[in-house]
Amino acid sequence: MAAYILRRLLLMIPTLFGIMLVSFIIVQFAPGGPIERVIAQISGTEVSATARIGGGGGDFGGGQQSLSGSAGGDVTSKYRGAQGLDPEFIKELERQFGFDKPVHERFALMVWNYIRFDFGESYFRDVAVVDLILEKMPVSISLGLWTTLLTYFISIPLGIRKAVKDGSRFDVWTSAVVVIGYAVPGFLFAVFLIVLFAGGTYFQIFPLRGLVSDNWDMLPWYSQILDYFWHITLPVLAMVIGAFATTTLLTKNSFLDEIKKQYVVTARAKGLSERQVLYGHVFRNAMLIVVAGFPGAFVGAFLSGSILIETIFSLDGLGLLSFESIVNRDYPVVFATLYIFSLIGLIVTLISDLTYTWIDPRIDFETREV
Q1: How many Å apart are CA 36 and CA 39, to the nearest integer?
Q2: Under a CB-based contact definition with an 8 Å cutoff, are residues 298 and 148 in contact?
Q3: Mind listing the pLDDT tens digit for each residue in 246-289?
Q4: CA end-to-end span of the chain, whole Å?
C-alpha cells in the first residue's frame, strides 16, 4: 500500500504541471488583461464584473497581445484605449505586472513560486493571495460541508428504501421527485426559494444575503448559531436539490445489484430476517461505492458547486472569488486558486481510493497499476 500511495503522490507532480501549463497557454490567447483594466480605470470606461458578463469581453476586447511582452512596436498600440497615454507609463505597468518578461520565463517563475506555495499578491486587491483564499474559505466550507452531509442523510435512507420497494408505488413517485430534482438546476431552484421565502413577494422568512447578520458579533452564542443556520438554509437547500438525486440513484442501484447476488439468497435460506440480510450482509458491500465517494462529493460542493449559489445569495466565498478573478483578469488569484483546487482534488481522489480499502480490506491496490 505504501508503494501505491508513493506512486500516486509522484504522479501528481506531472499532472499539476500539465494543468498549469495548459491553463497558462490558454490565458495567453484570452482577450484582455490587467493592463487593459488599469487603462479602463484611467479613462473612466471600466465596468463592473457583472456588467462584463453579457458584453462579450467589454473593455477587454482587444488586448490579447498584452501577455506577450513589450518587445517591438509602439507599446501603446497593443492595448485598447492606451492611445494618448505616456508609453513610459505603459511600460511601467508591464514591469509592475511582470509582462516585460518572456512568456517562458514568467511560467517558470510561477512554477518555482508555486512549488514553495508562494502565490504572490492580488493585482487589484492589494492583499496576499493566500490571505484572500483563507478569508473566503469559511463560506465555501460551510456550503460544501452542510450540502454533502444533508445530501447523504437524505439519499442513503431514500435509496435503500427505493431498492427494497423496487417497482412499488413508493418507488415510482419518489423516482418522479428524484428526476425533477436532477433536471432542475440548483441556481434556478435558488431563485425560486428567494422569490418564495426571501423576496417579499410571498413570504419574508429567510434573509436574502450574507452568511450571518451584521450584528452577529454582539449576539449571545446560542443566537449566533441560530442566526448562522437561518442564513445558510436557503443556499444549502438550493445546492442539495441537484446533489441528492445522483446519490439516491447510486445507492438504490448499488443495493439492487447486491440483493441479486448468491450470498443474499444463501442468507435468506438460512432463515435470517430481511432486516438482518439487508443491514448485516448487503449494507456493507452496497455502501462501498457510496461512502468512498464522500470525500469527492464534499470537495465538489466545496470548490466548484457553489459559484452561482454564492453569487445569487451574495455569499463571499471561494466560488465567487474565482469567478470575479477570472472576469477581472486577476491572474495571481486565478492561477493560485486553480493550483490549490487541483492539488486538493488530486489528494481527495487518492483519499477516496484509500477509503475503499478501509471499508473493504479485501481490496488491494498493491496489485493494481496506476
Answers
A1: 5
A2: yes
A3: 888 888 888 888 888 888 888 888 888 878 888 777 887 777 77
A4: 12
